[in-house]
UniProtKB/TrEMBL annotation:
EC numbers: 2.7.7.59, 3.1.4.-
UniProt protein name: Bifunctional uridylyltransferase/uridylyl-removing enzyme
Reactions that this protein is recorded to catalyse: [protein-PII]-L-tyrosine + UTP = [protein-PII]-uridylyl-L-tyrosine + diphosphate; [protein-PII]-uridylyl-L-tyrosine + H2O = [protein-PII]-L-tyrosine + UMP + H(+)
PANTHER family: BIFUNCTIONAL URIDYLYLTRANSFERASE/URIDYLYL-REMOVING ENZYME, BIFUNCTIONAL URIDYLYLTRANSFERASE_URIDYLYL-REMOVING ENZYME
GO molecular function: [protein-PII] uridylyltransferase activity
Function: Modifies, by uridylylation and deuridylylation, the PII regulatory proteins (GlnB and homologs), in response to the nitrogen status of the cell that GlnD senses through the glutamine level. Under low glutamine levels, catalyzes the conversion of the PII proteins and UTP to PII-UMP and PPi, while under higher glutamine levels, GlnD hydrolyzes PII-UMP to PII and UMP (deuridylylation). Thus, controls uridylylation state and activity of the PII proteins, and plays an important role in the regulation of nitrogen metabolism.
Cofactors (names): Mg(2+)
Pfam families linked: GlnD_UR_UTase, HD
Every HD domain range: 436-559
Lineage: Bacteria, Bacillati, Actinomycetota, Actinomycetes, Kitasatosporales
Family that this chain belongs to: Belongs to the GlnD family.
Length: 817
């Protein structure tokens, strides 16, 4: 019998000695990464072997490390996964006593322990029932005791794994899918779980298990480096937090970056995302290969039975032509035998376009060969290359895995050098679902479904791919992006006119949605400014489609039927201006019949009059119903405090304000009421939870708010206090600016603040003492951020002088802060 003895440990080395050595090791700055993990595992091996030897173990017993500890990958706060293996010859009491002599010192040090005591037969039986146990045993490593017993178990478990691969690998694939659904995709999460999320350490372990089955193997290029980078990040996270956590929370990222010697948290995330991308791509390729092998194996028995038990010669794989130099084989797009990448610079894009158009993955072997041998494209690109890029982007969702295959081998950056700056770049705004690079691809995917709406689909798709390309540069990304897009469009081979159009669309890709949601569309200056920036109806078409594609690719909070209707209204008005049609004068517009009726009633009674109208808004996604859109009309005699009172009452009733238009209506005597001024408010609101309050309840609370018997500020404060504050990044202070809107109707103030119930109420209260009149308010909310735009005038309707407007903005900012 071969036994393992501790290398350096002695019986006298107790928990205190190990703890001191462990602490010293973890704080050695010169020893990091794999070296530290290996040293920590060796130190722990020696200590546990010493405990084992000191307990005078019976014959036929071994202490075995499994799982991550079996791989000698101990992070500072890792669990110790241990198996006490025995052959059944020793008395149960002796084995139990031995276990206690090992487990209790581990617990006494506060180390997490995952332990079991089993015979080889029991271990195999448990592994057969529990896939996670079997995966842990694949990395079994003997620490002390009967080495032959431990080696025999590992050999047997590996043999079982290979013999059962046809059944076990689909189970493992399902386990990976379930985990991905629960934890998300690591490379796109702001607070990723380094272990459980898709592309994390669990997936890297799964790839090792697939390789151990001998059924398929993962692409090796960069995989070990990626895995090491994820482990290094987890080590730094454990050291920075002092906790056994795998979630890279926002508040920990700066400390983790510093622990790793990185510039900042963004650099940390980019590195983590890149590593996760390597693991994800390797997983996709590997599981596709597993599926192909399993499908081929399941077909052999049927073929054998058809041939009467004779296997027959293996038929050559069928190759179906897709494009010049590209064929389909075994469900993948591969290079034809006659392909000459070294003489055909357009072949990478042609192969990618053919694969995406046919909904096929691009073979990793083909991509690797293209990356190694393909001749660079001339600049500007020939027409064929440009058309293939457009074809690739126009394929929709099937373009994503093909694009990722090109990225995995560095071909995208070779084609579009500026892509490197946005590659794996995180977006700190939680509204965004994707990193910058993936968001650009997703926008092109969304744009592909909108190409029938524009005259130049090719310009739409390329502009979609490039619209945020400036986010890798300092300053306004739209301004930087315009220059980069101009250079890239020329590189791709567009002529001067088309290049200018792409640059203009990239420069103004936020213009429509920002204007529609934050500006008064009845103000002629608003529409004329957009028309001047856009220039032509064709460019307006492209911007309209890109606006929708960009929002849909951002996330569910970025687009709604309400935003879509506002943008469509703006586009209609701008189209009229570009066609030479005159804009109506908002000052000359008469109130609607209903507004006039409500105003008469309010003047007659001296009290508020309300009318609620549900708008016919269809949700963009039937599976995600949108809150009901409502038009709320309120008429009441003109008096101070109307805006904060109405906004506060709506907040109390959990109604989200989208827009508010306030106008004073002078009623003539011939309407049968005494003459006077009535304030008419036209609000667009949405029920926060889908149910609308009753009009009489709103009116009753509004009366109480106006007479001072309802303390709205106190009620809102009570509600906010009822919700526990979540730990996280502190919101920046509010910012109020005077917007250069060139409006003849009002001075425009823009308020940027953390979204909260009653924000518009607080703004209204702050404006009450400023001797200004609010003409209209436009509310835009994305995630936790609100942008409220206020059109204000002096009481006589004139614009505020510049200095007065700046002073008002400062006062409002101070009040909100």
């Amino acid at each position: 019998m071969t036994t393992l003895e501790p290398q350096d440990a002695t019986e006298e080395q107790g928990p205190e000695g190990y703890a001191a050595d462990r602490l010293r090791l973890l704080h050695e700055k010169e020893r990091t990464g794999p070296e530290r993990r290996t040293a920590l595992a060796r130190l722990t091996d020696d200590w546990l072997a010493g405990l084992f030897a000191a307990a005078a173990p019976p014959r036929g017993v071994a202490l075995v490390a499994v799982g991550g500890y079996g791989r000698a990958e101990l992070s500072p706060r890792s669990d110790l996964d241990l198996l006490l293996l025995h052959d059944g010859s020793a008395p149960k009491e002796a084995v139990a006593a031995l276990a206690d002599r090992i487990w209790y010192p581990v617990w006494d040090l506060g180390l997490a322990l995952d332990h079991s005591v089993r015979t080889p037969a029991q271990a195999r039986a448990t592994a057969a029932e529990d896939l996670k146990v079997q995966l842990g045993l694949l990395d079994a490593r003997p620490l002390a005791g009967d080495a032959a017993l431990a080696a025999a178990l590992r050999s047997t478990v590996l043999a079982d794994w290979r013999n059962q691969a046809v059944r076990r690998l689909p189970e493992l694939a399902e386990l990976c899918r379930d985990r991905a659904e629960r934890s998300g995709e690591l490379r796109f999460l702001l607070e990723p779980d380094l272990k459980e999320a898709r592309g994390g350490l669990r997936d890297a372990q799964a790839l090792r298990a697939v390789a151990a089955s001998w059924l398929a193997d993962a692409p090796r290029d960069g995989l070990d480096t990626a895995r090491r980078r994820l482990l290094d990040a987890r080590d730094a996270l454990h050291l920075a937090t002092g906790r056994a956590t795998d979630r890279l929370a926002l508040q920990e990222q700066d400390a983790v970056a510093e622990e790793l010697g990185l510039l900042d948290a963004d650099t940390l995330l980019r590195g983590v995302y890149e590593a996760a991308g390597v693991v994800t791509y390797a997983s996709d390729v590997t599981w596709r290969e597993v599926g192909r092998v399993l499908k081929a194996r399941s077909a052999r028995p049927r073929l054998r039975s058809l041939l009467g038990g004779r296997a027959g010669p293996k038929a050559p794989a069928e190759r179906t032509p897709l494009a010049e130099g590209v064929v389909e084989m075994d469900g993948e797009a591969v290079l034809a035998l006659s392909a000459k990448p070294e003489r055909d610079p357009a072949l990478p894009l042609r192969a990618a376009a053919a694969a995406a158009q046919h909904g096929l993955p691009l073979s990793p072997h083909a991509v690797r060969r293209l990356a190694a041998t393909a001749k660079p494209l001339p600049v500007p690109w020939p027409a064929e290359a440009r058309e293939n890029l457009v074809t690739l982007l126009g394929a929709g969702a099937s373009a994503v895995p093909v694009w990722e295959a090109l990225e995995a081998e560095g071909l995208v950056t070779r084609l579009l050098p500026d892509w490197e700056r946005v590659r794996h770049r995180p977006q700190r705004n939680p509204v965004h679902t994707w990193t910058v690079d993936r968001h650009l691809v997703e926008t092109a995917v969304r744009a592909a479904s909108l190409t029938r709406r524009v005259g130049r689909p090719d310009l739409l798709l390329v502009a979609a791919l490039l619209h945020d390309i400036g986010k890798g540069w300092p300053g306004d990304h739209s301004v930087a992006g315009e220059t980069i897009a101009r250079d890239l469009a020329a590189r791709i081979g567009f002529d001067r006119t088309d290049t200018a159009t792409v640059a203009t669309v990239v420069r103004h890709h936020l213009l429509l949605v920002d204007t529609a949601t934050r500006r008064d569309l009845d103000d002629p200056a608003t529409v004329q400014a957009v028309a001047a920036a856009v220039g032509t109806v064709g460019t307006l078409e492209l911007l309209h489609a890109l606006t929708e594609a960009d929002a849909l690719a951002t996330g569910p909070a970025a687009w709604s039927a309400w935003r879509a209707s506002l943008v469509a209204d703006l586009v209609k008005r701008v189209t009229g201006v570009l066609a030479g049609e005159p804009l109506p004068d908002p000052e000359a517009a008469a109130p609607s019949a209903e507004q006039e009726r409500l105003a008469v009633e309010a003047l007659r009674t001296g009290e508020p009059v309300l009318a609620l109208h549900t708008r016919d808004e269809q949700p963009l996604d039937p599976d995600e119903p949108e809150p009901v859109g409502v038009e709320l009309l309120i008429a009441l005699p003109d008096q101070p405090g109307v805006l904060p009172a109405v906004a506060g009452v709506l907040a109390l009733h959990r109604l989200t304000v989208r827009a508010a238009d306030l106008r004073a209506v002078e009623l003539p005597t011939e309407l049968g009421s005494p003459p006077g001024s009535v304030l008419v408010l036209d609000w667009r609101v949405a029920a926060e939870y889908g149910s609308l309050p009753q009009g009489h309840r709103l009116r009753a609370d509004l009366l109480r708010a106006l007479d001072g018997s309802l303390d709205i500020a106190a009620r809102l404060a009570e509600r906010e206090a009822a919700y526990p504050r979540r730990r996280g990044v502190q919101a920046p202070p509010p910012r109020v600016t005077v917007a250069p809107a060139d409006s003849r109707l009002a001075t425009v103030l823009e308020v940027r603040a953390q979204d909260a119930p009653g924000l518009l109420h607080r703004i209204g209260r702050a404006l009450e003492g400023a001797a200004v009149r609010v003409r209209s308010a436009h509310v835009s909310t994305l995630g936790a951020n609100a942008v409220d735009t206020l059109y204000v005038t002096r009481p006589d309707g004139s614009l505020l002088p510049d200095e007065e407007a700046i002073d008002l903005a400062r006062a409002l900012e101070e009040a909100l802060g």
